[in-house]
Amino acid sequence: MTEKLFWADPYLSACDTIVTSVQDDLVTLRETVFYPFSGGQESDAGTIDIYPVLEAKKSGIDIHYRLPGQHHLKLGDQVHVKIDWQRRYQLMRLHFAAEVILELVYQSLPGIEKIGAHIAADKARLDFIWPVNISSEFPGISAAAQKLVDQNLEIVSAFSDEATQQRYWQVAGLGKVPCGGTHLRRTGEIGMIRLKRKNIGKGKERIEIYVNLFESSPDSMMHETS
Fold first, then answer.
1. What is the CATH number of domain 87-221?
2. Residue 215's pLDDT is what?
3. In angstroms, rounded to a whole number, what is the distance separating the alpha carbons of residues 146 and 164?
4. Where in the sequence of the chain do the CATH 2.40.30.130 domains occur?
5. Inter-residue contact 190 to 196 (CB < 8 Å)
6. Which of 41, 78, 88, 134 is most buried as measured by Cβ atoms within 10 A of its Cβ?
7. pTM of the model
């Protein structure tokens, strides 16, 4: 089983590790900082040694990385894994912005049903079954979300069941939510949130979520293993 360093420290941008299996263009690692596509959150981008990772996907509680077919990695090789930190941090900010908006939507609209979600590096989206234009709720939801951001509250993220790799996040006053993504340390890192409504079919509503660009470089937050 791959040790998932991105859970213990989501600000870790690189690590040295060992290849634990090779099957054609798929490899597994002893430990990793490289988050795979999961729960609607896109995977990290980056490299394993000199090779770009073309796809990172879950396989049970393990992670497989697909490399170019001409790679030369073998079982037991020592490798350096490095992610695109700017992309990771943007995904983390949008991911948690979406988590906050989702919880506030649930509070504002009892009975609403989420039917989809996607977190990319430019925006996040949440899809719902809802019979009317959801944008009428935006002023209240946006104000409540920005209050949580401005309070700069601690975000706790931990295992609820380590054996089955089940995790959660928790913010005081907002709730405790099952989630295995990569999370910020504090709500203030989200920055300013902007919402946009999109109709995706009869009885269906989409909320697109955007965050402001970096006001300063996030590089000082990330670090690598020694």
1. 3.30.980.10
2. 53
3. 34
4. 3-83
5. no
6. 88
7. 0.92
Angle at which helix 138-151 crosses helix 85-108, to 10 degrees, equals 130
Q: Quick check: 130 pLDDT over 90?
A: yes
- Does domain 3-83 fall into CATH 3.20.20.370? no
For 7-21, the pLDDT digits (tens) are 999 999 999 999 999
Q: Which residues in the chain are classed under CATH 3.30.980.10?
A: 87-221
Phi and psi torsions of 88, nearest 5°: -55, -45
Beta bridge partners of residue 34, listed in sequence order: none
Task: Produce one character per residue of 63-72: b if its CB has 16 or more CB atoms within 10 Å, e if not.
Answer: bbbebeeebe
Residue with tokens 């995904």: 91
